[in-house]
Write a structure and sequence with these properties.
- By secondary structure, this protein is an alpha/beta fold.
- The protein has three domains: 397 residues, Glycosidases (TIM Barrel), CATH 3.20.20; 57 residues, Oligo-1,6-glucosidase, Domain 2 (Oligo-1,6-glucosidase, domain 2, Alpha-Beta Complex); 59 residues, Golgi alpha-mannosidase II (Immunoglobulin-like, Sandwich), CATH 2.60.40.1180.
- The protein is 25% helix and 13% strand.
- The protein is built from 15 helices and 18 strands.
- The strands form four sheets. The chain has an eight-stranded parallel beta sheet. A five-stranded antiparallel beta sheet has the order 12-13-14-18-16, with helices on one face. A three-stranded antiparallel beta sheet has the order 4-6-5, with no helix packed on it.
- Helix 5 runs parallel beside helix 7 and helix 12 packs parallel to helix 15.
- The longest helix has 18 residues.
- The two termini are 31 Å apart.
- The chain binds alpha-D-glucopyranose.
């Protein structure tokens, strides 16, 4: 691969069809040998990402944090966690990424701070009724119990009682996630002003955008009413308008303000929402022209490997995004869900946590990998942008046999192990060599990776896959290179083509066709078509669970 002599020119509407690489910093690359990924590790691998062919990086939270939820418990939004590096390292990384033509998106966590954030420690010290407590949701209990029936997403009640400064049992504070993640009160003007100021802080340092953590949860019903469901799962179900904390209409005003901040920059800054809402119609409310630019399409992530279901999700997503003129944003995996190789290698299911899926005895990893290859060509041929979670390009699977003692996801602890949690998709990447740490940490590192890597990672390191014509890495590199060059890919029309049952076939503009075979047998390729890229060897036919990109006359 060649090194660009000068920084490529960057388009201002790049985000409409960008491929963004999700960089889960603690598991990407460890530069200093302490077993935890860091900014130095990113800097050393930027050329790998440029050569992979992505347009931008989304880096999960790198702020100072007690790490009760892997950095989603932020104690200072204007600094970098010392274990990840210094502010100077971060500035150098941003500049180096830009010089290689890569945009940088950070992760902002507005629903909650850490309980070790200065605002929360001040709120605890100041006591009931104080202005400091007004930035969070503090309430007296109901009898001996919490103020209402809300449950934490991670299990257990969404309220924790504090000891007052005089030592007496006191008020309760709201936390939709861990007790170390107190929810902010978004009806408070200081909270709103503070986050706009944080956006500016990082935009001024060259950051191109933000992924917004739990973007649909900020605004609560001020009456804090009971949800009123008996069933724990229903208590947290996203019900469309009217739920006391999910997807409330009032949240949109927050994002109108954020959009004004973003648009005040000459090179516009962009947002991507993490919003788990009830329908595509509810999702595109976040994407109205004066709100956010993009939002993850979790309907697509959760769609089973079934031709009718995939087609229906693609159609409904494109139709609803079209109503607001926003591009679709396709995604298959992230740091919160079971890696798609392990989902696709199981009987179809609608969920994406390990508890929703068939037991590991029913996992066929080879099938999962084969389908993941086809799914990659399908996703990258769809109109709009796409996210690739680190390790997707290596075909990594969910590590399902982590010992309980090493699990760190608070979900595991808060549910007493009933929910396995998300550690299995967060295992550090394998770069090279035949034994752990597989190049994740430098030679001579004394600390082990923060989660143990399985021995089978030896077969899927970057080094092992580099140059292998049949590897997942080679497929991703080829697909991303074609996507950049081919004028029909990225934004633009999609037209379904007639085909045999169980085959998804569509054209993208003039002369480009994508075919994915989800039927029970091989199907013929269109006469006269030229193969650009295929996930399996072809012999005039497209095998089962394979995909192909074609040019047609
Ligand atoms: C989001 C993050 C997840 C985190 C949660 C609480 O869903 O993706 O990792 O645990 O928010 O911040």
């Amino acid at each position: 691969m060649t090194t660009a002599a000068t920084a490529p020119t960057l388009r201002t509407d790049w985000w409409r069809d960008a491929v963004v690489y999700q960089l889960y910093i603690r598991s990407f690359a460890d530069g200093n040998g302490d077993g935890l990924g860091d900014v130095a590790g990113i800097r050393a691998r930027l050329e790998y990402l440029r050569d992979l062919g992505v347009d931008a990086l989304w880096i999960n939270p790198w702020y100072p944090s007690p790490m009760a939820d892997a950095g989603y418990d932020v104690s200072d939004y204007r600094a970098v966690e010392p274990a990840f590096g210094s502010e100077e390292d971060a500035a150098a990384m941003i500049a180096e990424a830009k010089a290689l033509g890569l945009r940088v998106i950070l992760d902002i966590v507005p629903n909650h701070t850490s309980d070790e954030h200065a605002w929360f420690t001040a709120a605890l010290a100041a006591g009931p009724g104080s202005p400091e407590r007004a930035r969070y949701h503090f309430r007296p209990g109901r009898g001996d119990g919490p103020p209402n029936d809300w449950r934490s997403v991670f299990g257990g009640p969404a309220w924790t009682q504090v000891a007052e400064p005089d030592g007496t049992a006191g008020e309760w504070y709201l936390h939709l996630f861990d007790a170390k993640q107190p929810d902010l009160n978004w009806d408070h003007p200081e909270v709103r002003a503070e986050f706009e100021s944080i956006l500016r802080f990082w935009f001024d340092r060259g950051v191109d955008g933000f992924r917004i953590d739990v973007a649909h949860s900020l605004v609560k019903d001020p009456a804090l009413p009971d949800v009123g469901e008996e069933d724990e799962t229903l208590l947290n179900a996203v019900g469309g308008a009217g739920h006391p904390f999910w997807d409330r209409d009032g949240v949109h005003e927050v994002y109108r303000g954020w959009r004004r901040v973003a648009d005040s920059y000459a090179d516009p800054k962009v947002f991507v929402a993490e919003a788990w809402v009830a329908s595509p119609e509810r999702l595109v409310r976040y994407l109205r022209p004066d709100e956010l630019h993009t939002a993850f399409n979790f309907d697509y992530l959760g769609t089973p490997w079934d031709p009718a279901a995939l087609r229906a999700t693609i159609d409904s997503s494109l139709a609803s995004n079209g109503t607001v003129g926003a591009p679709a944003t396709w995604v298959m995996s992230n740091h919160d869900v079971v890696r798609h190789v392990s989902r696709l290698g199981r009987p179809p299911a609608s969920g994406h946590s390990l508890n929703d899926l068939a037991p590991v005895e029913e996992l066929d990893l080879e099938l999962g990998r084969r389908r993941a290859r086809a799914a990659a060509l399908l996703m990258l041929a769809l109109p709009g942008g796409a996210y690739v979670y680190q390790g997707d390009e290596l075909g990594l699977w969910e590590v399902e046999d982590l010992p309980d003692a090493v699990r760190q996801d608070p979900t595991f602890r808060r549910t007493g192990g009933a929910e396995i949690g998300r550690d299995g998709c967060r295992v550090p990447l394998p770069w090279s060599g035949t034994a752990a740490p597989f190049g994740f940490s430098p030679d001579g590192a004394t600390a082990r990776p923060w989660l143990p890597q399985p021995a089978a990672f030896a077969g899927v390191t970057v080094e092992a896959q580099d140059g292998d014509p049949g590897s997942m890495l080679t497929l991703y590199r080829a697909a991303l290179a074609l996507r950049r060059e081919h004028p029909a890919l990225g934004e633009g029309p999609l037209e379904w083509l007639p085909g045999p049952d169980g085959v998804l076939a569509f054209s993208r503009g003039e002369g480009f066709v994508c075919m994915v075979n989800l039927s029970g047998g091989p199907v013929a390729l269109p006469a006269g078509a030229e193969v650009l890229l295929a996930t399996e060897p072809l012999d005039g036919e497209l095998p089962v669970d394979a995909a192909v990109w074609l040019t047609t006359a």
